[in-house]
Specification:
conserved putative lor/sdh protein from methanococcus maripaludis s2 fold; Elongation Factor Tu (Ef-tu), domain 3; 6-stranded antiparallel barrel; 4-stranded antiparallel β-sheet; 5 helices; 19 strands
């Protein structure tokens, strides 16, 4: 079978042509395409020019600000600020007494509220409110007429029982009566004596006496008043000596010893100090406050301390060896620690003296240098300096709020009443 011959002309046939367009439409399309391309290029150039302008303006502003700040700083650097005047105190080596301070209260060594042991009507009042009485002094009499009558009858019975016993003892010695009879009579005597003692005890209870020497308080009952057992009548306080109760932190326990001297001051007695001794230390520490209770005793012969009074207590410890101290006003306290301004002498600057002989830097002047210190105890307006300073250093004791670190200062020669007991150091 014969195959059909391939059409060799079909391989060389040109591709199918696009539909024919009119020349006007082709021209419009070309113009539109050109305008689009031109618009995109214009936008890019506008963006580039804008960014360049912004960068240029920002650079100019930064340069101007930097130049202005440098000029201002240069002016201020050339200006000499007036030196602040300060009061200066020297670092001293002295011996200070260490104290532990606290707030305490006064307690009487002997204090009671006298009350009736037995009920009855008050028939006599022997005292005046606020008076001083001695132990055994009658204070109040409660009606005891009935007991006095009973006492008289029991006294007569006792006398008869004793006479009977005495006669029968003589008969028993001659064997006229039995020993049993004598024993019964002895029992009667003992019973009569016991009854009499019981009535006498009631009589004694109805006469109320002072149990110890002291000062009476305000009377709380009146003559003729009927009182029950336990009724409070008057207070009695011995003020010759008083206890001082106060607390200290538990970490101070190792520094406490019975017999240490303590001093007490009170707002009720301004300018007066009372001296006593530590008498007792509580062996237990409060679990809530972590405080330890201590007690001292003070002689109160002038009766100026009263029970319940609040007092400031200073417990003296051992005398300290030589330590460095500065006025308390010299120490600046902050969250970063304690610091002082130390005065440093600066020699004249030859270059400044040559350019400006009137400048403060052209002669000997002083600067305040901030120094971090470690402080210890504070006693009588002075602070112990543990580290940071040495003997001979001078520190600013007044005027710190007017200076800063490395500031030039002038030293005042006038003494300040705020600094005690040292005298301000002179340049």
């Amino acid at each position: 079978m014969d195959r059909p011959e391939p059409d060799l002309k079909s391989k060389n046939r040109p591709p199918q042509e696009l539909p024919n367009r009119s020349p006007q439409k082709a021209a419009d399309l070309a113009v539109k395409t050109y305008r689009t391309i031109a618009s995109d290029k214009k936008k890019r150039w506008i963006l580039i020019i804008t960014l360049a302008a912004v960068i240029l303006v920002g650079g100019l502003l930064w340069f101007f600000e930097h130049w202005r700040n440098s000029m201002i700083n240069g002016i201020f650097d050339k200006m000499q600020m007036p030196a602040a005047q300060v009061v200066v105190a020297a670092v001293e080596s002295s011996s200070i007494a260490r104290n532990l301070s606290g707030i305490g209260s006064v307690q009487a060594i002997q204090q009671v509220v006298i009350a009736s042991e037995i009920g009855g009507k008050i028939t006599k009042i022997y005292f005046e409110a606020g008076s001083f009485v001695e132990a055994g002094t009658p204070l109040i009499q409660i009606d005891d007429a009935q007991q006095q009558a009973q006492l008289m009858g029991l006294t007569a019975q006792l006398r008869v029982a004793k006479l009977n016993l005495q006669r029968n003892k003589a008969l028993a010695e001659n064997n006229f009566i039995s020993q049993a009879t004598v024993d019964n009579l002895q029992t009667q005597v003992d019973t009569a004596q016991a009854n009499l003692d019981g009535v006498q005890a009631v009589i004694d209870q109805k006469l109320i006496r002072a149990p110890f020497n002291g000062q009476l308080g305000v009377r709380k009952v009146d003559l003729g008043q009927f009182v029950a057992a336990g009724t409070a009548m008057v207070s009695l306080t011995n003020l010759s000596s008083v206890y001082i109760n106060f607390t200290l932190p538990e970490q101070e326990r190792s520094r406490l010893q019975v017999g240490q001297q303590l001093s007490v001051t009170s707002v009720a007695t301004p300018g007066q100090k009372f001296i006593g001794r530590l008498t007792a230390i509580e062996p237990q520490i409060d679990q809530v406050s972590r405080q330890i209770s201590v007690q001292g005793m003070i002689e109160n012969r002038e009766r100026k301390l009263y029970p319940g009074m609040y007092v400031d207590v200073a417990l003296g410890l051992s005398q300290n060896s030589q330590v460095l101290t500065v006025p308390e006003t010299a120490v600046d306290y902050s969250l970063y620690g304690e610091s002082v301004y130390r005065i440093v002498a600066v020699q004249p600057d030859p270059k400044v003296a040559e350019l400006d002989p009137k400048s403060p830097l052209a002669s000997l002047h002083y600067k305040a240098e901030r120094v971090i210190v470690k402080t210890g105890d504070r006693v009588k307006g002075r602070v112990e300096i543990v580290s940071g300073l040495v003997v001979g250093d001078r520190v600013v004791a007044e005027g710190q709020n007017r200076i800063r670190d490395q500031a030039t200062v002038t030293i005042s020669t006038e003494a300040s009443p705020l600094i005690a007991p040292t005298t301000p150091a002179r340049p």
